[in-house]
Amino acid sequence: MSELAELVGADHVLTDDSVRQGYETDWTGRFTGACEAVVRPANAEEVAAVLQWAGANGRKVHVQGGNTGLVGGSVPTGQGPAIILSTLRLRDPLEVTGRSLLAGAGVTLGDVQRLAAQHNLVYGVDLAARDSATIGGTVATNAGGIRVCKYGMTRRQVEGIQAVLPDGTVVERMSGLAKDNTGFDLAQLLTGSEGTLAVITAVRLRLSDPAAESVVAVLGVPTLAAALEHAWAQGEGLQAAEVVDERGWQEAGGPDVGGTPWVLLLESDIETAELPDEALVAVEKPDQERLWWFRESQSEVAQRIGVKQKVDVALPMERLDEFTDAVYAAHSATIFGHVADGSLHVELLESGEDEVLDLVVALGGAVSAEHGVGRVKTEAVVKDRGEAAISAMRSLKDAWDPHGVLNPGVVFR
Questions:
Q1: How far is CA 192 from the centre of its chain?
Q2: How confident is the model at residue 324 (pLDDT cuts 50, 70, 90)?
Q3: Alpha-carbon span 99 to 150, nearest angstrom
Q4: Claim to verify: residue 142 and residue 258 sit in the same structural domain
Q5: Based on the domain organization, do 160 and 254 belong to the same domain?
Q6: Residue-number span of the structural domain to which 115 is assigned
Q7: β-strands 170-173, 199-206 pairing
Q8: pLDDT band (50, 70, 90) for residue 189
């Protein structure tokens, strides 16, 4: 550990048991694993030095940002002596240049959003953990969130990247050129790679014009198909379409919408919104934030009522109701999610994750919509993608990280 202290400074090699515990257990409390130390480098050069040290000393490296993940992807898996490499000090750069934003991997999503707003622009990715989740983590997991129906997943926002390979080599392409057809796009390859190929240290992000002034509406719907009809009625003005089941809505203390199985929250351009008469409508910002709170509190609500397993999946639009009906028939659960992009969060109050994931595969869905594979879905992803695709991915992992230093046990079984 003294050698690591020379690389990053003694104050940034954390070995005390009580300090390490906050890093060794994920947000859900479901996944934990011991490490020798938490190491907090301040720049790409220090990251490179730490990875070189790890390779030379037989240590595994688990990369961790804000530790808001839900699939155990950033805590040790027990596959050899390990350290956690925290990216929280990688906060440079943080600046807007033209219609792009440069951010160190440790900058939070919320800080990126606020800086973009200062320039009358927006960053198109948003999620409830915005003030804890780091940009590096959201890029590494290709995060989705509540604005995918308007802006797309994180991958669509990434214009450039700086990263450190397992052997300590720093690679960078941050020019943000609109046309750049010179070989493999490493930024896109590393987006969604879950820290298995390299440590992302900085990114260049696309910014967009702000959406039109919006209205937020809440209404009860009998089915997810009905929710989708209301969402599509908004046309290009749709900014978000979220659903919460009746139990989750009631547990959060949401306003009465008539006792329907589902509650739909719509955000749409105020000039073009097509809302039914029975919708509860909010135009003023404080009222909108209050309605959004009932949706954004759902993960915490599930924790409070005793969630055992949190499952994040995507389904073909036409099979959403078939999926949820089958889940409710077999399991005690609450469900919420992003109906306009077919992404749902199933909060199981008992065991049953494997059965739910098998159902997803059978219905032609994806076993992970936005949280990633982590260490939870290494079996399910094989059923989803197939042995040949996983073998191709594994060949990339083996080529870039032949000694298996980075995030062992994540993505691959």
A1: 9
A2: very high
A3: 18
A4: no
A5: no
A6: 94-206
A7: unpaired
A8: very high
**Cβ-contact 103, 90 below 8 angstroms:** no
Same domain, 355 and 237: yes
Q: Among candidates 137, 199, 132, which has minimal Cα distance to 171? A: 199
Question: Same domain, yes or no, for 329 and 287?
Answer: yes
Angle between helices 224-232 and 320-330 in degrees, nearest 10: 150
Taking residues 240-266, what's their average pLDDT?
97
* 367 falls within a domain: no
Q: Span 138-143, mean pLDDT?
A: 97
Residue type, 108: T
Percent of the chain at pLDDT exceeding 70: 100
Tokens of 391: 């073998």
Rounded distance between C-alpha atoms, residue 219 and residue 207, angstroms: 31
pLDDT above 90 for 80: no
CA pseudo-torsion sign 302, 305, 309, 314: negative
Is residue 171 within 8 A of residue 196, CB to CB? The reply is no
Out of 57, 86, 115, a domain closes at 86
Instruction: Tell me if the pTM is above 0.90.
Output: yes
Number of folded domains that form the chain? 3
Query: Do 285 and 301 share a domain, yes or no?
Result: yes
Q: How many residues does the chain have?
A: 413
CATH label of the domain that carries residue 125: 3.30.465.10
Would you place residue 47 in the very low, low, confident or very high pLDDT band (cuts 50, 70, 90)? very high
The residue among 52, 86, 120 that closes a domain is 86
Residue 389 lies in a domain: no
Angstrom distance (rounded) from CA 24 to CA 67? 9
